[in-house]
Design goal:
aminoacyl-trna synthetase, nucleotide-binding, five-stranded mixed β-barrel, binds aspartyl-adenosine-5'-monophosphate, 2 domains, 12 helices, BirA Bifunctional Protein, domain 2
Amino acid sequence: MSERVVVKNLAALSDGPVTVSGWVETVRDQKKVQFVVLRDESGAVQLVNPAVREVDPEVEGSAERLATTEAISALAHGSFITVTGELKHDERVKLGGIEVKVATLEVVTAANPETPIAADSSLDKRLDWRFLDLRQPKQALIFRIQTTFEHALRQYWIDNDFIEIHTPKLMASASESRAELFEVDYFEGKAYLAQSPQFFKQMAQSAGFGKVFEVGPAFRADPSFTSRHATEFTSVDAEISWIESHEDVMQLHEELLVAGFTAVKDKHGEQISELFGIELEVPSRPFPRIPLAEAKRIVAERGYEIPRADDDMDPEGERQIAAYVKETFGHDFVFLTDYASSIRPFYHMRNAEDGSLTNSYDLIYNGVEISTGAQREHRVDVLVEQAKEKGLEPEELEFYLDFFRYGVPAHGGFGMGLARVLMLMLHETSIREVTYLFRGPTRLAP
Ligand code: AMO
């Protein structure tokens, strides 16, 4: 291992020799002294080098000092360097009250002199150069937050006796709908990329696992270019047995989110307000619940008519109901419940009193849908009828229908888009900003 000290640990050291490595952020090349700001994954530090502009044969080491001075003058932004030198605490130094006086400097990899992106580059251009874009501290913070959030969810699941599953992403049939399905060649036949772990997380209920979760990729051949859609995204899924209705699923969902938000606020709250300018709020439980039909009435009263009466909430409707919930309950989340069966998949259980409704919900956060959940239909004859009603061929679903032919408890669960949660948590305008490498209709690289 090298002697390297990560920048954030420098402040705790006493004055003396250190080695640091990182990217050149800025160079101030003055006649008598040079300043370099070096950044690594943990922070930035100022390097200082008394400039030597010509060799003085009387002074020992002056040829080396000249070479170092010239190397600094030639440093391009983004080059990766390793420096040995003397750490000095000096409260006059604005950047953290420390600096490193350069003794030796090695250019490990020189960067091209022209940086292809700048702070004002378009999002598309930044995504073309994602590795450079991600060097900004704000970007790295997003993925530290994601790590903390996922870790807290996992901790919750482990504490509550869930089993983690990894379901296949190559499937013999569609899991959500025939639309938005990626078909791939599979030896002599065809396969489909999983749109959701839906069928296999339900299989775990028939297998007697009780409670399962998965965080994994999902694929949708969705040609839209909205700020909330990707063709590949990370889906956070849970499925639980022994429920009475979708209410049990909503309770799990809100507890899980509170655990995730608490961990993120505890660990990153200060940095979030510093870099994103927002105060992260941990939601209080219970989250408000509003049946969809009532939500539509509320939205209409506010002067917005959802274009088609039998339709789902559209994005403007979601914004309107979120504004109402914020004004009325001071809450950023709302469960819209009891969706019409006409706009829900075949596997949602219908309401026992009103078969035109389902025991299902969408979770809206800051005005955007982040999740869908439901109680599932577990009676196979009803399931077959509902599949036919939706134009699906029960023959293609035989493997799935078998799960329900050998005893299965009442169960339900949800799927939640990880990037959507992050986008809304950080008030970002697109999931492209919070997805490590975005995939969309016209983006397959890098
Ligand atoms: P649904 O299709 O509503 O439900 O998806 C669940 C959640 O996944 C996210 N999501 C997406 N994120 C980015 N790009 C997309 N193209 C995209 N499509 C969906 C959203 C959405 O709320 N099997 C059910 C879930 C369940 O009932 O358990 C399902 O997949 O955040």
